[in-house]
């Protein structure tokens, strides 16, 4: 046994000093080891760093990453859906037109959607953790700076631009990373991750209402910004799939890097230039020839018109409730009901499209038809119970529409073109998020009521249904022509 111990110590020492031969020595020892020997196995961390990998696909740390993705969606989407609660307070503080104040949310929503495909692509180069933590810092920092705003013009920069960039940089990487960490349970994991947005839509209206009551607008935005910094905490939960890498650098490269002296200004300029080139390259690599396909163009327009109406649900409902004489607490409760049914709709229609794949187009068009009709009817109601029932009903279909966009994108293009297609879908939604608050705010200023704003939003959503019907008839005609041939 003394000889066995000597072999074990020597092998471990050699494995530690020379990882390329450590595993061979261990195998040789196992061959000469007696059957009843108590020789312990050489620790795995003494073996080659090149061959050791950390695999957590579908198990282990992947579920911790999913936990982080769930709460990133919770913070970002929940925060966006709760701006209507802040809208009422900001309007009373700055006494500006609805059109001017709406530009704040327009910028934030536009940047969140527009930067989605860009941040998802950049995360492949700079890592998910880097992009998410950067986005969290920007989102929280913008809200903290907004608490010190002395005019609504300042909010354009602090909330509209800084917080909007933060949302855009944090959200898309948190969705895309799920595909890397899950294979067998990818659909389930994606559903759980996006469900965080529905839960956030239920929770944040009450939270913001409480903060406004206890601390006022300044204190509420300050605390709200601190809460958004938890996005960084979620980002820190992400660790690479490979614990060790096989990258090695020569002694000459290391020495050169250590000896290289550059000023801080030059370093920052180089980083900004490199980042800008990467963004432009990402945009250039998108498959712009998709705009030569009529079906894709119809899909992008359907998304634009549908999102125009969807954006109204959580932007103009709170000020409308305030207009008809109900309290802000009532507005928070109505948004809670909408968030609950929105969450259920995402899961329910996603499951239904898996069970009935041949009827996906019909179900997708039906969701837009019903929530678009509900938007028009909202302006006719004046009681809390009526609003809760209606918001609950079309929240179900609004969630079904928003939660199945990715599924419908796959129906229109092959998987190789899906990243570019999804990027254009995000940009279509970005334009809708930019124009909707401006248009509805201008209508409110000119008419003195939110009624016509609801009618415009509902009509835009119903236009998306007409586009999908046209696409369905076109496909049916092409199918009949192929059968005749």
TrEMBL record:
GO MF term list: monocarboxylic acid transmembrane transporter activity
Domain of life: Eukaryota
UniProt GO cellular component terms: membrane
Membrane topology field: Multi-pass membrane protein
Subcellular location: Membrane
Listed InterPro entries: MFS (IPR011701), MFS_dom (IPR020846), MFS_trans_sf (IPR036259), Proton-linked_MCT (IPR050327)
The entry's keywords: Membrane, Transmembrane, Transmembrane helix
Name of protein: Monocarboxylate transporter 12
Organism placement in taxonomy: Eukaryota, Metazoa, Spiralia, Lophotrochozoa, Mollusca
């Amino acid at each position: 046994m003394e000889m066995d111990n000597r072999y074990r110590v020597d092998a471990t020492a050699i494995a530690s000093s020379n990882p390329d031969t450590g595993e061979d020595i261990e195998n040789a020892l196992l061959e000469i080891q007696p059957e009843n020997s108590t020789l312990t196995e050489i620790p795995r961390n003494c073996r080659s760093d090149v061959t050791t990998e950390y695999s957590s696909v579908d198990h282990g740390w992947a579920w911790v990453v999913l936990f982080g993705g769930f709460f990133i969606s919770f913070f970002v989407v929940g925060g966006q859906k709760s701006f209507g609660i802040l809208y009422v307070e900001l309007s009373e503080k700055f006494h500006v037109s609805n059109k001017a104040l709406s530009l704040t949310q327009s910028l934030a929503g536009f940047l969140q959607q527009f930067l989605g495909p860009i941040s998802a692509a950049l995360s492949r180069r700079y890592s998910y953790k880097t992009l998410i933590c950067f986005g969290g810092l920007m989102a929280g920092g913008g809200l903290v700076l907004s608490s010190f705003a002395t005019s609504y013009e300042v909010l354009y920069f602090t909330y509209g631009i800084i917080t909007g960039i933060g949302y855009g940089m944090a959200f898309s990487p948190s969705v895309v990373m799920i595909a890397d960490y899950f294979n067998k349970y990818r659909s389930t994991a994606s559903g759980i991750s996006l469900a965080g947005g529905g839960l956030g839509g239920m929770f944040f209206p009450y939270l913001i209402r409480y903060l406004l009551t206890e601390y006022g607008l300044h204190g509420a935005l300050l605390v709200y910004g601190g809460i958004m910094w938890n996005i960084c905490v979620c980002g820190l939960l992400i660790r690479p799939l490979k614990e060790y890498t096989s990258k090695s650098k020569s002694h000459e490269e290391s020495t050169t890097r250590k000896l290289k002296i550059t000023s801080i200004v030059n370093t920052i300029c180089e980083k900004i230039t490199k980042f800008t080139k990467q963004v432009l390259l990402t945009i250039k690599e998108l498959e712009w020839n998709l705009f030569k396909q009529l079906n894709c163009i119809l899909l992008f327009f359907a998304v634009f018109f549908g999102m125009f109406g969807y954006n109204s649900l959580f932007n103009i409902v709170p000020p409308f409730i305030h207009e008809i004489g109900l309290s802000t607490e009532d507005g928070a409760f109505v948004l809670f009901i909408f968030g609950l049914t929105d969450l259920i709709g995402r899961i329910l229609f996603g499951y239904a499209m898996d069970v009935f794949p041949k009827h996906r187009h019909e179900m997708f068009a039906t969701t837009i038809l019903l929530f678009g009709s509900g938007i028009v009817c909202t302006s006719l109601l004046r009681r809390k119970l009526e609003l809760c029932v209606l918001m609950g009903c079309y929240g179900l279909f609004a969630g079904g529409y928003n939660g199945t966009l990715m599924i419908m994108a796959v129906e229109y293009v092959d998987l190789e073109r899906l990243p570019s297609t999804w990027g254009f879908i995000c940009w279509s939604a970005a334009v809708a998020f930019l124009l909707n608050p401006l248009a509805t705010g201008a209508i409110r200023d000119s008419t003195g009521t939110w009624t016509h704003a609801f009618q415009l939003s509902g009509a835009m959503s119903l236009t998306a249904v007409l586009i999908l019907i046209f696409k369905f008839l076109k496909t049916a005609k092409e199918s009949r022509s192929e059968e005749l041939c």
